[in-house]
Hints:
Layout: E1 17-21, E2 24-28, H1 34-41, H2 44-50, E3 55-57, H3 69-75, E4 85-86
Parallel strand pairs: 2-3, 3-4
Antiparallel strand pairs: 1-2
Amino acid sequence: MNVCPFATAALTISLVVVVSYADLKMVIAGDNESPSWKELLNDPTFVTAIKGADVLLASHHVRDAGYSADLFEATGKPKLDPRNLVMQ
C-alpha cells in the first residue's frame, strides 16, 4: 500500500538502504526522485541514518529527476569524493 501522498508514479519513491560495515557507510538510493528526497530529508531519523555516508549509489539511473543537493548536504559531506559515487 502506498502511504506517501506525493507518490503518484511507481518510480517517484522507493526504498533507501543504508549499509554500515567497519568504518564504511553506503547509501543505496533506489529510484527516488526529488519529491521523495524532500520528504525523506524532513525525517530526522533518516537524516541521522545517512549522516557521514562514504559511498552513494546514485538514484534513478543518474537522471536529473533523482538528484538532490540537499541529500549531499545531509550526509555531512557535501563534497563527497566523486570516486565514491556509484552510478547504475
